[in-house]
Amino acid sequence: MSEFILRTNNLTKKYKNDFALENVNVSIKKGEIYGLIGQNGAGKSTMLRLVTGLSFPTDGSIELFGNDHPSELTEVQKRMGAIIENPALFPNMTAYENLEVHRLQKGIPGRSCIQNTLELVGLLDTGKKKAKNFSLGMKQRLGLGIALLSDPEFLILDEPTNGLDPMGIVEMRELIKRLNHEKGLTVLISSHILSELHQLATSFGIIHKGKILEELTLKELDEKCKMHVRVKVDQSAIGATVLEDTLSTTDFEVMPDGTIKLYKYLNDVRSVSQALTNNGLVIEHLSQNGDSLESYFSKLVGGVDID
Amino acid sequence: MTNLLRVELYKLKRNKSFWVIIAMTTGLSTLLHYLVVIDWWTMSGTVFNEAGLSELNALSPFTTLLFFNLIVSSLAGFFISVEFSSSGVIKNQVISGNKRSHIFLAKFLVFSLGAIIVTILIPVIIGILLVILFGHGDIINTSNLLYLGRAYFLFILPFLGYTGLITVLAMITEDSGKTIIFSILFSIIMFAIEKFPKPLLIETVFEHSIFYQFSEVFKHTMTNGEIIKSLLIGAISLMIIILCGIFMMNRKEIK
């Protein structure tokens, strides 16, 4: 069995002359929480719509649970749950009735799953209140309930925190984390709120103007965003020894190009420069680097640097 | 497919518009039948007159496309189109891993069932009940029941063809208002084609369409050939419309 839940191969979607997605290759492993980051209109929803079968690719292919034939894709979609754009609800039905519709649709035996799901998403006490009278947050939670009703292996959430209050956001994040840890649920979640995704996702795909600019793990992202002093000297090996002996630190990395990334002395760059020059080294470059998540993203997509 | 049929039935039972249409059809049907039965409203030249069932003349509007389209398209608009709108629940059905052809068929079948209830069953049952209640029960004899049975049996096939067309229209427009307006325009065009002089080709095509059959099947006497022709036109049209609907559903981008 494939270790990948979802793989896309040169996935392309074109509307007339505009590419909504262009040659997108994304791989999501079992058990991952994959955060799809992008600005509004970057192509996040288009990609999710293609994966869920709401829309058809112009080119490229999608592999879900190791299957890539269109008829097989429809079948394996039964193992997925999703909210795309807005939660799709029957406004004149209660939360219970909305879930009952979905239960019948999926052929889930017994009604106990409805009570369990209502409890899980915190809507057990909504009684006869119609979905049209729900707050935006309650609608999101009911949408999540619908997506979770059939106990899916793969959950796709498109901007799920839209309309949620701060507590609601925390609750949803904790719920997703819990389902991921306890049931091994694989999650693909899109958002333009970077800090939100950073607290939840284990892998990231950065999408911009229909193209995936970068795929990286949480560790890699943190590494890239970590503040450091970037030093380039004429002899990097000696430079490293000086840092160890004179500045008594081993919290640095020597990069393949000889640049040293020093994670200490962030507020005392002068000491670093002094130690290096005192040992006869020529400093070619010395700067303080590191990004906030927003700044890193902004740089990557070619926007304004955010300090 | 069974699951989808159960879902559609569940939704139909909870569809407010369906119950409003039932109430309106029941009220209107009762009123029309009452006015006809007490001779307040006399209709002439109807198919029921020719069959000697003038007490059931109020059924005529319910077999006329221009009139019954209002009922059928309203139901389609509020039962099918709304599901395709931007917050539409059709997304859930597609994401759930159901074949699109099955989704279309389930919607078509349950919508048609609802349309048959409001357009055929309610007016006929109310008509028969009022005729009996007002002392004209003698017309409900074997011969007339056979006529009504044959006529409505043959009527249902082209009617299903029409509900199929409206299902496709509702799916395309994704808006209840547009579904109703376009279907009214369509029925006006069909009415004009039926009533006004037309080129031979159009006349031939029209006479072999379900629209011509709506009135043809209510003729008091029909030859075997005419019955077979009517069945064939209804069945073939229905198949073509369903296949077109499935084809379009399979290629539809769900918003």
Quick structural overview:
Chain B: The chain crosses the membrane at residues 18-38, 58-82, 103-132, 152-172, 179-196, 227-249. The complex is a heterodimer of chains A (307) and B (255). Chain A has 307 residues and is α/β, with parallel strands linked by helices.
What would the average pLDDT of chain B be, to the nearest integer?
89
* Major beta sheet summary of chain B: none
Which band does the percent of strand residues of chain B land in? under 5%
The total count of strands of chain A amounts to: 14
Overall mean confidence score, pLDDT of chain A: 85
What gross morphology of chain A would you assign?
A: elongated
How far from one another are the termini of chain B?
Answer: 23 Å
Instruction: Give the CA-based shape of chain B.
Output: globular
Radius of gyration of chain A: 24 Å
Helical stretch count of chain B? 11
Oligomer: heterodimer
Terminus-to-terminus distance of chain A: 45 Å
H/E series of chain B: HHHHHHHHHHH
Helix content of chain B: over 70%
Give the secondary structure arrangement, pairings included.
The complex is a heterodimer of chains A (307) and B (255).
Chain A: E1 4-15, E2 18-24, E3 27-29, E4 33-37, H1 44-51, E5 59-64, H2 70-76, E6 80-83, H3 95-106, H4 112-120, H5 136-148, E7 154-158, H6 166-183, E8 186-191, H7 194-198, E9 203-208, E10 211-217, H8 218-225, E11 228-233, H9 236-245, E12 252-254, E13 260-262, H10 269-278, E14 283-289, H11 293-300
Parallel strand pairs in A: 4-8, 4-9, 6-7, 7-8
Antiparallel strand pairs in A: 1-2, 1-3, 1-5, 9-10, 11-13, 11-14, 12-13
Helix pairs in contact in A: 3-4
Chain B: H1 2-13, H2 16-37, H3 47-50, H4 65-84, H5 90-95, H6 100-133, H7 142-173, H8 176-195, H9 200-207, H10 210-216, H11 224-251
Helix pairs in contact in B: 1-6, 2-4, 2-6, 4-6, 4-7, 4-8, 6-7, 6-11, 7-8, 7-10, 7-11
